[in-house]
Amino acid sequence: MPKYDRNFTDELRERLSIVDVVSRRVPLVKKGQNYWGCCPFHNEKTPSFSVNEEKGFYHCFGCGEHGDIISFTMKSENLDFKAAIAELANQAGLKMPDYKPKPAAQIQREESYYQIMSGATDIYQNLLFSPAGENALNYVRRRGFSDDMIKKYRIGYAPKNNVIANKFVNVKQDNLLATGMCRRGDYGMYDFFRDKLMFPIFNAHGQVVAFSGRSLDGSEPKYINTTDTELFHKRKTIFGFNFARDAIHRANRSIVVEGQIDAIQMQCNGFPETVAPLGTALTDEHIAILCKANRNIIFCFDGDGAGQKAAARACDIVMPFLRDTSDVKFAFVTGGKDPDEVLKSGGVNAMQKIIDGATPLTDFLWNLANTEFNVSTPNGRSQAEKFIRQKTSKITDAGLRNEYEQEYKQRIFNAWHKWKKNYQNIPKINLPTVDDITKNTVIFIVNKYPEIAERYGDFLATLNLNFDENVPEMQMDEKSAEKYIVSLKLQKYLAHLQSEKKDLTSKLLAGADVGTAINEVNKKISDAQQKIDALISM
Questions:
Q1: Which of 198, 276, 367, 432 would you label with 246, given CA atoms 20 to 30 Å apart?
Q2: pTM, whole model, 2 decimals?
């Protein structure tokens, strides 16, 4: 069997949740930290097939089958390795590479990259505690970093001279250039990072693959990152994830903040499950990695305009990753502060209140629609409804998408269409009070199918019901629900006509000339009865 390139198979394992892959074939139920179902590889009635999303493997305690997404796809679909990879690539939206053995030269080159990055990290860290790094060390300590924190995150200082180009003079220049640490100029190699506070960027395995450098003299941009390399891709790298992985599992959530200093301070002050995107805005690759670790995410952004935009973008990106096990929320740090400042001024308790007060995604999207559009006008409401539909259409789980759609239909009906609140202004006819069964049925229909309530709002308002009451769940589809409302409306109308005929008959007996009026009412009664009969026979 050939040596397939592990970079692509690792990316598949990173992008795809084993729970999503397995649940295509096996209904799973979460119990504790694992998901359970009946094993697809042998007959059983009691579920003994366990799936661990964090570790990315499955194991059957009945027949002993175990493996990852690749082996599961091979065995469950009866596919060979390459076909299974192709199937998973299609699920992940990735293009299949041309498989070939990984060349020895590439392996050596990558090992050289890791050695350069690790060596550069040591150099920068030593320089931070040297006279040359005094300014940088004072700055990072003013930001609340202890020496233990500096050592844990391997923070360092890049001086103004070409320390890396000079220290790695015996390293192959192409390898040094490929790490992004140096560039080639008219007078030879020079360092990319100069006079910067240096934050190493680790991959998920704890290896240094890049750096983020912060300016110390107030110059812009405030941060510069290593450009994308063979080892490092900003869109696929999450700052602090290597430190946060176990904590995300224990806390059953991740917290996403905007910058690395915020992420470090959060991790060191009671929120070890915190991470941050790098260099670019949040990407779907970032969300895929986080959702594989845990589908519960709290986005914690600054409360200014930029933070609100970042939250709106996060909401848009996370939609395709939502499952019925997801709990996505949005927290905002107001008053021109960021998490770092909140922790310094108010401590862990102040930050905890912000996290505890996070807004659920359903409410955040609803608030966003109400803020972005003028829902007091028909045009604005139409735009807002299209906006919500466009967002919820991205949810790939059909059942969950339907629940979101129903949720927003009810909110739109109750908040934007005010017929329930204005029913007292509608002329009423004297109708008998509906019985409890009819009342419960009507309330259920109004809350389950708000579009039906909208169509028959004028009639429903005459029933004087409290539509906020809790009523039992009923088995009634939308067609049957509308048929019920139309039938009830016709029955009420028929009762009104019969009452009107009774009044006219009394007048006729008293000598009034109402014969023509009685004939007209009789015709209306006949028409209404025919409609009721036709509705019953449908």
A1: 198
A2: 0.66
Encoding tokens for residue 48? Answer: 């003994």
DSSP 465-492: --TTS--------HHHHHHHHHHHHHHH
Neighbour tally for 82: CB within 10 Å: 13
> What does residue 156 show for φ and ψ, rounded to 5 degrees?
-145, -165
Q: Nearest 5 degrees, angle CA 96-CA 97-CA 99?
A: 120
Cis peptide before 360 (omega within 30 of 0): no
Which residues have CB under 8 Å from 353's CB, separation 6+? none
Q: What confidence tens digit (pLDDT) does each residue in 180-191 have?
A: 999 998 888 999
Q: List the single range of 96-110, 125-139, 228-242, 522-536 with lowest mean pLDDT.
A: 96-110
Backbone dihedral angles phi then psi of residue 24, each to the nearest 5 degrees: -65, -25
Cα(228)–Cα(221) distance, integer angstroms: 18
Counts for the chain of helices (H) and strands (E), in that order: 22, 17
Q: Percentage of the chain with pLDDT > 70?
A: 93
- Strand pairing class (49-52; 57-60): antiparallel
Q: If pLDDT is split at 50, 70 and 90, which confidence band does 424 have?
A: very low
233 and 205 Cβ atoms separated by less than 8 Å: no
Write down how long the chain is: 538
Single-letter amino acid code for the residue at 70: I
What is the DSSP code (8-state) at residue 270? Answer: T
What is the largest distance, in Å, between two alpha-carbon atoms of the chain?
A: 122
Distance in angstroms (rounded) separating the CA atoms of residues 453 and 447: 8
Q: Which two tokens stand for residue 97?
A: 């590479």
Angle between the N-to-C axes of helices 241-251 and 284-293, in degrees from 0 to 180, rounded to the nearest 10: 50
